[in-house]
Amino acid sequence: QITKAIIPVAGMGTRFLPASKAQPKELLPIVDKPIIQYIVEEAVASGIEEIIFVTSMGKRALEDHFDRNFELEYRLQQKKKLTELKEVAAIGKLARFAFVRQDKPLGDGHALLSAVPFIKEDEAVAVLFGDDVVDHKQPVLSQMMKVYNRYQDPVVALYEVPKKEVSSYGVIGGTEVGARTWEINKFVEKPTPRKAPSNLIVVGKYVVTPDVLQILKTQKPGQGGEIRLADAFIARLKQGKSMYGCQFKGERFDCGNKLEYLKAQLHYGLKRPKFRSELRSFIKDHC
């Protein structure tokens, strides 16, 4: 049973400047809920009980968001805004939260190592990055856990994209061994479309086993002087060990991309009965 998740949120969010100049990019809202809360709710809905955020300077607002705000709750109570009070009070109760700072920006693998003190040596852990929001009745992490429970090896989330787009992502090669389940034999970072082993990209959601964390501890920095999780997966494959991919169901929005972020706003706005009719009319009038 996987009960812990690491969420690295130490990045600068430069693609969203100037909006991210004074607030963490992860707190930008989709309708009225921050991006990061969608990620946390996915984890909790999948059975995660403890979440370790790996942060950096300027991310204090993330801690505040998942903490109690007694003054706000008191004022909402006084004004009889009970719906809002219930929503706000529930955030701090979603899970047990811990926060640790990544002392240097040395890659996503280095960020995971910052969280190692919170993880037992024999414990598998979920890793969720703060950009990928997926809408489906079954959370992506829950779909991945089914694959992990069967094979007890690392699992990555897979998403099919047009071949021309693979050069922006990590891409896998492998064999389909079950419904939407792949045994991976190759892991390539940002290949050209011609050299890509498939058009299945790796999305920022993982189940990481203890031996992957051990590889990271001894791994030398790679390109750009960074310790990368992808390099640890490649090293593990070279050792002859198995890993799997879950081609998840659901509609994905890469909220680290401005256009995708706008699409997410429309998607989740249209799901709200309160906004649906007027939003549809607005889209129709302006398209």
Give the overall shape, derived from the CA principal axes: globular
Widest sheet: strand ordering: 5-4-1-6-11-8-12-10-9
| Rg computed from alpha carbons, rounded to a whole number of angstroms | 20 Å
SS elements, strand count: 13
The biggest beta sheet is recorded as: 9 strands, mixed
Order of helices and strands: EEEHEHHHEHEEHEEEEHHEEHH
Helix tally equals 10
The portion of residues assigned to helices is 25-40%
Class per helix and strand makeup: alpha/beta
Point out poorly predicted stretches.
none
* Beginning-to-end CA distance, first to last residue: 48 Å
Mean of all residue-level pLDDT scores: 93
Strand content: 15-25%
Summarize the structure.
The chain is α/β, with parallel strands linked by helices and 287 residues long. Helix content is 35%, strand content 24%.
Give an overview of the whole structure.
The protein has 287 residues and is an alpha/beta fold. Helices cover 35% and strands 24% of the residues. The protein has ten helices and 13 strands. It is globular, with a radius of gyration of 20 Å. It starts with a strand and ends with a helix. The model has no long low-confidence stretch (mean pLDDT 93).
Q: What topology does this entry show?
A:
Blueprint: E1 4-8, E2 29-30, E3 33-34, H1 35-45, E4 50-55, H2 60-65, H3 70-78, H4 82-91, E5 96-101, H5 108-114, E6 125-128, E7 132-135, H6 140-151, E8 155-160, E9 170-178, E10 181-189, E11 200-208, H7 210-218, H8 229-238, E12 244-247, E13 251-254, H9 258-270, H10 273-286
Parallel strand pairs: 1-4, 1-6, 4-5, 8-12
Antiparallel strand pairs: 2-3, 6-11, 7-13, 8-11, 9-10, 10-12
